[in-house]
Specification:
six-stranded mixed sheet; elongated; Neuraminidase; Immunoglobulin-like; Serine Threonine Protein Phosphatase 5, Tetratricopeptide repeat; five-stranded antiparallel sheet; 717 residues; 35% strand; 11 helices; alpha+beta
Length: 717
């Protein structure tokens, strides 16, 4: 009995001890003391996985806690074990954490597999879509490793140093290396010191030992990062809420601002008016002119876990913050920095990268573009952030935990690739015709900058380009139009490259070469009058042929034209044509004039009536006007006859054709033709020009051949 009682007591004690561990771990977890929570949850998770004793939630919390203290391999082991038990064990945010951590240990293919699984549960998640489709397509990003050179800075403490910023003749940065005594304690998250601001400068080629900054740069909890405007008269710093603002529980980050007074001393800090209680606001930086403040926040209403916002200083106060949507994702965007060129650099794990936070850039002068990954070297599979650049744009500093997941500061230097552009300017005839001495303009920076150059005798041009810019290539020439605008970027270029871009100019005019000859003898007809009618504009041009019967005219393309040749003593000839292509350089036309002889007959084109009516339509009058001019000039007597097709009764067709012929005659008389010189004759269907008589099935085109108006010369006076 005593043995039984003892065993029961041991079991009760063991159960109580397990419950105590669970409670202790939960306590640490709720207070974000992940350093203490992780090993306890690890024990509880191992017990659950091996013996199915305890709570499955311990496995998830073990994974999360180990991830927060950068032990990603252990964290990923627990995530993997958890998903084997239940694919729905992770929520959307936890799946994102797991995918990101796999990439931080370069398990890119596994990250794609998990993202594809997560996408089945969360089909609208853009991050899962991106990783599932592009997660291993990193060739372009890795290619930048050839251009980017990074070097570890000698002043690192190996305890955590990050977020450098230019200040005076040196650098300020945030560090975990400074311990301010027992009053400040340690940060429960990872048992490291609270962050502080230090300053270092270079002397005689060597970096001096960093010194901690005090006064407005120091508080009892987290301090930093800090940033300044261009003339270092304003600063913005990230602090925890002060004790007066938040006495217990989780301490949130907030922004504070200061300016220098007349003596050059920093004034008391003032809270940024758009800090939000129970949300983090930090990582502030100024625009080049100091009138815009960029910062990071996890406040409600954002795109993702943390977003970049900006606030403009107007009317003496900071305006309501605006979400910079073009850069923000469902992940984390952090550590903004704006260069003198108004280029925003920021860290993100929501855009495609090598893992963890990668550094990206976007030109704030041209928000039509997308953020660009700065590539390998600057970026690694770990967290890379806190990027700054000097006024050359080719050097600077950044922070990264690529070395054992400890934040350290690195210098970076970028060797820009040599990018050349060449091409030809062509007139788009067939074959193409190179245009020499042609002016070409290359625009960049959304057309705010331009470079002008000329083609050589072969129509060739070449110039140099800069990387990560948008370009527009243009050229203009009278009577030509650009076939297609040539726009391109150098955003994806990572090595020495030659780009080839041709410009094709489509001619808007075409040369029409007309020759007029006598029909029977083929002799040239000089001084023949040419009427050149644009069917759309109704613009009618008149000119005379030269001594060899030639005439050249420049006309618009993509138009319908009607050309008529006339000369006293000859029957007019006319032809229609289109200028509907770019490849022809010339249109060659030959018009044949037949000498006027008694009995000659010709068809009068473009005479139209309404259906079953004899009234002339307006478009018929142009042709009749020309006929009137011809008759008066040559003093001819003619028969003007109208003809119908075979459809309808013979009597009806005869009557209709007579009325139509009379309509033409009446109009010609109005135009000055003597009524004694013209006879109207309607032949109906009695003079068909094809086999389409009654009972024969014909096409509409065949019937149209029979519906015509003709002129027969009866007498030459």
């Amino acid at each position: 009995m005593r043995i039984l009682i003892t065993l029961c007591a041991v079991l009760i004690s063991f159960c109580s001890f397990s419950q105590l561990k669970q409670k202790l771990a939960d306590n640490h977890y709720e207070n974000m003391a992940y350093y203490d929570a992780a090993p306890i949850y690890g024990e509880l998770a191992d017990k659950f996985l091996s013996k199915k004793k305890g709570d499955k939630e311990s496995v998830k919390r073990a994974a999360y806690s180990y991830g927060k203290i950068f032990e990603f391999k252990t964290s990923n082991k627990y995530y993997k074990a958890l998903l084997k038990l239940d694919i729905k064990a992770l929520n959307e945010q936890e799946y994102m954490e797991y995918v990101n951590q796999l990439r931080m240990v370069r398990q890119y293919q596994e990250s794609v597999t998990i993202a594809q699984s997560a996408l089945q549960l969360y089909p609208e998640n853009e991050y899962f879509k991106m990783i599932a489709s592009k997660g291993t397509k990193l060739k372009k990003i890795f290619a930048d490793s050839l251009l980017n050179k990074v070097q570890l800075m000698p002043f690192n403490s190996n305890l955590g140093d990050f977020a450098p910023f230019y200040f005076k003749d040196g650098l300020v940065y945030t560090t975990k290396s400074v311990h301010k005594g027992f009053l400040t304690g340690r940060y429960a998250w990872d048992h490291a010191n609270f962050t502080n601001i230090v300053f270092t400068t270079k002397k005689d080629g060597e970096w001096k030992k960093p010194k901690a900054l005090s006064d407005q740069f120091f508080s009892r909890k987290h301090d930093g990062p800090v940033a300044f405007n261009s003339d270092e008269t304003k600063m913005v710093i990230t602090h925890n809420y002060s004790n007066k603002e938040k006495k217990e529980g989780v301490r949130y980050l907030a922004l504070y601002l200061s300016e220098k007074d007349e003596e050059g001393e920093w004034k008391e800090l003032e809270a940024f008016p758009h800090d939000v209680k129970n949300s983090n606001t930090g990582h502030g930086c100024f625009s080049p002119d100091g009138n815009t403040l960029y910062f990071v926040s996890d406040r409600k209403g954002g795109e993702g876990k943390t977003d970049i916002y900006y606030s403009n200083f107007e009317y003496g106060e900071w305006q309501k913050p605006v979400n910079l949507e073009i850069v923000n994702t469902v992940g984390e965007e952090m550590f903004p920095y704006v260069s003198d060129e108004n280029v925003l650099y920021f860290a993100s794990n929501g855009h495609l990268g090598l893992g963890g936070l990668d550094v990206f850039m976007i030109d704030l002068n041209n928000l039509q573009t997308e953020p660009v990954n700065l590539g390998g070297g600057i970026n690694s599979s770990a967290d890379d952030f806190g990027f700054i650049v000097d006024d050359t744009g080719e050097n600077g500093y950044l922070s990264s935990d690529r070395d054992n997941f400890i934040d350290k500061i690195y210098s970076w230097e970028r060797k820009s690739p040599k990018i050349k552009l060449n091409g030809y300017v062509y007139a788009a005839y067939k074959p193409k015709e190179p245009l020499k001495n042609q002016r070409v303009v290359l625009y960049s920076n959304n057309k705010s900058d331009s470079t002008v150059f000329q083609t050589d005798d072969m129509g060739y041009f070449e110039t140099t380009l800069e990387e990560r810019k948008s370009y527009a290539l243009r050229t203009e020439k009278e009577f030509f139009e650009l076939d297609e605008k040539v726009d391109f970027t150098t955003n994806s270029i990572r090595r020495d490259t030659v780009l080839k871009r041709d410009l094709n100019l489509n001619p808007t005019k075409i040369t029409v070469r007309i020759q007029v000859v006598e029909k029977k003898t083929r002799n040239e007809v000089s001084q023949a009058k040419i009427n050149f009618l644009n069917e759309e504009t109704k613009n009618d041009t008149t000119a005379l042929t030269d001594e060899k019967g030639y005439l050249k005219l420049e006309v618009d393309r993509h138009q319908d034209y009607w050309v008529r040749a006339s000369k006293k003593g000859f029957i007019d000839d006319e032809v229609g044509f289109k200028t509907g292509n770019y490849s022809d350089k010339f249109v060659e036309l030959e018009l044949e004039l037949l000498k006027i002889n008694k009995g000659e007959k010709f068809k009068l084109e473009n005479i139209f009536y309404d259906l079953n009516e004899a009234t002339l339509r307006a478009e018929s009058k142009t042709s009749l006007d020309r006929l009137a001019e011809f008759l008066i000039e040559n003093n001819l007597k003619i028969e003007l006859s109208a003809h119908t097709d075979s459809r309808g009764s013979r009597r009806y067709n005869k009557d209709l054709s007579q009325r139509r012929a009379q309509s033409c005659v009446d109009y010609l008389i109005e135009k000055g033709v003597s009524k004694y010189n013209i006879v109207a004759k309607g032949y109906g269907e009695t003079r068909l020009v094809n086999e389409c008589k009654d009972g024969v099935e014909c096409t509409e085109e065949q019937h149209q051949e029979n519906r015509r108006t003709e002129v027969k010369i009866l007498e030459i006076k």
